Amino acid sequence: MKEYETVIGLEVHVELATKTKIFCGCSTEFGGAPNTHTCPVCTGMPGSLPVLNKKVVEYATAVGLATNCDITRDCKFDRKNYFYPDNPQNYQISQLYLPICRNGHVDIKLEDGSTKEIRIHEIHMEEDAGKLIHDEWEDVSFVDYNRSGVPLIEIVSEPDMRSAKEVVAYLTKLRNTIQYLGASDCKLQEGSMRADVNLSVREKGATEFGTRTEMKNLNSFSAIERAIENERARQIDLIESGEGVTQETRRWNDDKEYSYAMRSKEDAQDYRYFPDPDLVPIHITEEFLDEIKAKQPEFKDAKMLRYKEEFGLPDYDIEQITDSKKLADIFEATVAICNNPKKVSNWLIAETMRILKERQLDPVDIKFKPEALARIIELTDKNEINSNAAKEVFEAIFDGEVDPDDYVKEHGLKQVNDEGALRATVEQVIANNPQSVADYKGGKEKAIGFLVGQTMKAMQGKANPGMVTQLLKELLNN
């Protein structure tokens, strides 16, 4: 039986975190009523003229430097001509001939622990199109131009990836790098990071590429993995049955785990590119490059090495925390206040990650302040609140508007450390649960857990669990 190799290259579109669009002053804020973030420029009105947003060039250059690209000192914009209802000008302003970044690479970590270099062909700046909204009940479509003109960079890789796992590793590295730069929040679910997968298969050992397809509508890493495996299998089935693979663009339906053809795949000549006559060329000076280089942050790989040396955390903790710049920033700021790296790490990895997952949020959405988390840790260390109360306080401060001390006071969560009060309650629990007492004295040590629970219940969760356990053992062993 023939063995096949998958060949994959990606076109990754990233919405940049500018406050205004690439060629006009309209807001880039996500959401908003349809067609409210618009003006004559981004809706393609005749006679309107684009003016380049300098921040777009700064972000694109920063991403290029972080991905080891050569920066094109003299670049320009081109018009990519095509008609589509969400493209109000009937052309897109992009870069074909002189993209701002070229010949870069990122290193990804493979499952066996080795690294692999994924080459980047180019990064270019362009404007986003609008959004079509299809109403299947009324059988009509609407156009929202709020997204039209939002600045994008498109990161075009070489066809260096050979599996879905490698693709996810590459995308994860890109997302992490761009988030650290603050160039984008890279939220796949909101479309601020989108990946088009170009995939072909060939017999193992072959040097010629097979016919590729492009897959769109991929809005999560898991969807990307499923789409790649599905398309690989589809192409192999076609080849095995003697049919040819058609070069085309396909749309992935993740609910049905099925892709279908959208249109034949265009080549550059189909778009009739020519230099945009309304935009002057961009000259990037040495001073500008030095300024961008000076602003580059400490990226994940360097941060992981420093955390190991400075904080002595386990590798798992370091990996989880540094996976998000927001988490890393909160970690460092909280540790600077309470000087307890491991406890801060535990709160971020356990409770913070749990709440983010429950609320379907990203770390960039975190609003609580490091001072609040540090105070919760301090209250727990001083035995002023127990662990259950601490978790309740953390839930309350997660949205960033609650003072931990005020919450503890208002909800009566201060821990009871009075031995006299605890002893009286423990004695009552022992008297009310003779079977559990007998079980414990008969060698079933786990029975004490039930008695601790009953005591905590009687004390409305405010008792010091350590003191409760100690008192129970003292009284039961006499």
Describe the structure.
InterPro entries: Asn/Gln-tRNA_amidoTrfase_suB/E, Asn/Gln-tRNA_Trfase_suB/E_cat, Asn/Gln_amidotransferase, Asn/Gln_tRNA_amidoTrase-B-like, GatB, GatB_C_1, GatB_Yqey_C_2, Gln-tRNA_amidoTrfase_suB_CS. Belongs to the GatB/GatE family. GatB subfamily. The chain has 478 residues and is α+β, with helices and mostly antiparallel strands. The protein has three domains: 4-287, no CATH class; 298-410, no CATH class; 419-476, Arc Repressor Mutant, subunit A. Helices cover 40% and strands 20% of the residues. The chain contains 15 helices and 16 strands. It has helices at residues 54-66, 164-181, 221-240, 286-295, 300-311, 315-322, 325-338, 341-359, 370-381, 387-397, 404-410, 419-432, 434-441, 447-458, 465-476; strands at residues 4-15, 70-71, 74-75, 78-81, 91-94, 101-109, 115-127, 131-135, 140-144, 151-157, 193-203, 213-216, 248-253, 258-264, 274-275, 282-283. The strands form four sheets. Strands 2-6-7-10-1-11-12-13-14 form a nine-stranded mixed β-sheet. Strands 5-4-15 form a three-stranded antiparallel β-sheet, with no helix packed on it. A hairpin with a 4-residue loop joins strand 13 and strand 14. Helix 2 packs antiparallel against helix 3, helix 7 crosses helix 9 and helix 14 (447-458) crosses helix 15 (465-476). The longest helix is centred in the middle third of the chain and has 20 residues, at 221-240. It is elongated and about 90 Å long. The protein starts with a strand and ends with a helix. The model has no long low-confidence stretch (mean pLDDT 90).
